[in-house]
Amino acid sequence: MADDSSDDVKNWGLPKTIEWLEKNNVSDQGLQNLEQLHDLVRAEMDKKIRKKYDSDVYNKLHVEMANILAKNTQMKEEIVHMYDALIAFFGRKLPDEIKKCIQKVYGLDIHQKILKNKEDFSNKKCSIVVTGETSAGKSSFLNLLLGEVVLHSSLLCSTRRLCHIHSIPAGSQWYFEVTMEDGSIIPHKKYEKNDKEKFVKDLEECVTSKDTSVQKVDIYWHVPLLGDNTHVTLVDSPGIGDNQELSEELLNYLPNASALIFVINSSNCGGVQGDKLGKIFSRLNSEIKDKNLFSFDPTCTMFILNKWDAIEQRRDVEQGLEEKVWNNTLDKLTENLTGFSWETCMYKMSTQDAITYRGCGMVNDKYRFMLTGLKQLVASSMSVNCKRHCRWLTDLIEEIQKGLTIRLADAKSKYEDNDKKYKDALLRLSQLRQDVDSIRVDLELKCSEKCKEMAAKMHDHIHSVDVQAQLKGRINIDIAPDEDLIKKSVLQQIDKLILEEVKDFEKREKIIATARDQIRMDINKKYHILIEKLVDVEKSIENKKSEGASEEELEMSIGGKVLIGVGLTIGIPVAVALGIALIPFTLPATIAVFWKRSKAIRRLLDHQEELKDECLKSVLQQANKDVFNKYVNEHHLPQLKKQMDYISNEIPRKIEGLEQQVKDMQNKRLSSKEIKEMYEPALESVKSMVFTLQKFNLTHISMWNIDVGRLRITKEICASDSLIVYAAKLCSDEEESTVVIKLLPEATTQNYLKIVEVLSDLRKTNHKNVVAFIGFCYTDCMPAIASRDCILTTVQFKNSRLMTVFEMCDTTLEDYMRNHNDLICGNTQKRTYEKSALNFFCTSGLSICAGMVHMYEQRLLHIFINLNNIMINKEHVKINPPMIVPFSIIQREWPRAPELATEQYTNETDVFYLGKVLWELWYGRKANGPTRSSADECERLPDCKLKHAMPEKLAQIVRKCWEANPKHRPSLSEVMAVLGQVQVM
């Protein structure tokens, strides 16, 4: 035994393990199974190493928490500065005419709203609500975070009111305060360290008290995991259980929370109870506040799958149980909110195991992994408030900017032209107001029709012969002392079985989800038309040519932003709504109505099939189409109408604001000089605020923002006039990966924002033929550069620069061809091209086209495709996403698309350069080499009839790519069709 190492311990049996512990005078400290005892033995064997490792876990967490706090402090300071600038501008520099228009859109009290929002933002702490189902182990989980048993826990509901746990610096005295229903605060004395038992006892009496006049309890306690971060408050809340009053108290508090930790009892009937969780999502959905100041952020959610040890203990008896419980929980979460990878927020845990390990000075793997998630949650929750206020400020300031721009447009027009413009604008706005009303009526009618359709499908399914037979077969008749009780039990069973069947039917057929999506798409389509009309009116007032709204203008409009919000609205799926109320009919206490004669219980049990038929028939008679219509109208129609309400309230306000401005311009005639003197200084101030917000967005808000401290540059790969490319290491909590950094040239913040927006869209829709975008840095310094002697240095920029981070690929297509002459079809060293070379050419060409098609589907141009920016990674050909490429660089290339002379770049321009890429890919050389013709300028194009020439079909399509008129160039599908034909030659 003396020779055994810690690696051998896993093979020990229980007797040998106990013998070792006794011999080394080590207490088992309450550990209950062999696996835990093995961990204890290993910890003792490697005591010094283990203690240092586990200590490092906490030390690292404290450092990271301090960094999170520092970043959040910086963000808050910047937001407060923005509020101060806006308050000063609104009070002194904003012309009254524009102020009146803004009040039409945001309300008369907008100035007070700005002041209040600043005050709320400055005073608001990061509150993380910890809740769960009753008996899920919520209080035990909180005690784990608190480092000691502070909160009372039991099998029953142990928390009767909200408890706000404020972290205080280490060594401070503990205390708590009680807030009464009338708002008065009752402070309790501060407790010394040796009074811990008294503190816990006094706190327990207060938290579990049935005194309804106690509203909340504020607990001041050092939370070791948070270090000295006193800006985070943990909120212990009543569980979502059987006590309706306590559950409602939690649901009312949720909209004020920065983040949510939901504790699930994994061992209870397969995990999360969908109906209870659904109440939370329902409340979050119903509490969307004015102008996007509140929004549900899934990154600020954490699900603790507690009591996972019970699942592991049963895995030998029930094969696949762990996977089943995990997937069931994931399904329930996805039902409540689609479109998000909830598995990234789920953590397997055994709170009791983690507490036991901690008592032995150890940190088990599940707890360590959960701590990583907790750190990310704290970071997200601390920044989410800044993000909300930044969005609100951006909306408001952009609206002010639009009003000023419209007014300044008057300085460029004559009075007579302006008169005509005003009349036309008012007429169009009046018509637009009518359009909003008519579209609303039309959509409401469609919603009602769709709800009737859903109800009919539910009704027909439940009343089908097969389903009735299946329901009947699942009814169990239990013996009871009274025949009415037997009958009542059967009726209740049928009610429950119908509920389950409707849930399963929805899960299989997705009738409600499908209907909801169809209506949502129709709503978006209709209101998109309204927004385009609105933007057209704005353009006419600004003296701009009306050609329909561009994507950018639609996104910048309030309506456009509302549409984005609608796409994220949380709906209540049938599995949740039915848990709230199945079919709103009342079951009779007795079925004497249809069982008129009294019969002996024995006789009743002898005719079970007859009893089942009668009960089933009775329930189904009540569950008619009207019942299902009422149910759907009560639980689903309001959700759909809420979407319409939110949008249709925004557009009329916008119309009203524009009408107000046009009327003011009509009534207050100013000369061009007066307009410029009055409005240009205000517009310059607004532009400065917009720039500050854009910079804040780039620096802090974007979800793909990477901290520059996580990057280490290893070498420079290449450099050009437009960018410098580096190889680098990207470090995270768990791993280190090799990436590519592209340092972009100096550009405006607005241009940088456009690039980030484009790349973010691509990040959400990864494609195998597009180089994967990982994230970006917007910073005033380079990442650390590792020198040969391992000394890290960095470079400071004069102005902040944008660096984009991509997956590391093996090589460029240009270099790959240079090293593989046998894959070049037009290689002059060979008499004929081989089949492998032809296959490589066609496969590469098709991959390039597929990547371009994907980007066009995202409404993006590639902007200058070239062999040296096409990559190969693991034999996949990938095109690079668009970057900033100055026209001066593109115009130096040959051949050059004619439209570039006027700096126009379209999809057809991409096709022009695709032709060049295909030529170079065939011949294995640059198109501007010595093969170039010396003929007339318009004919100076690469020759497709050189030695080992292309097949005629291919040559024709390549030449067609170079047509002078962009409209005559082929589509990508035409090019792909020819490549496919050449490949099978």
Terminal CA distance: 72 Å
Strand content: 5-15%
Major sheet: order of its strands? 4-3-5-2-6-1-7-8-9
Provide the low-confidence segments as ranges.
Answer: 288-292, 546-599, 929-939
Q: Which whole number gives the mean pLDDT?
A: 76
Biggest sheet character: 9 strands, mixed
Helix content: 40-55%
What class would the helix/strand composition place it in?
alpha/beta
Number of helices: 32
- Give the total of domains: 4
Question: What is the 3D form?
Answer: globular
Compact overview of the structure:
The protein is α/β, with parallel strands linked by helices. The chain contains 32 helices and 19 strands.
Q: What labels would you give this structure?
A:
985 residues; alpha/beta; Rossmann fold; Phosphorylase Kinase, domain 1; 4 domains; seven-stranded mixed β-sheet; 19 strands
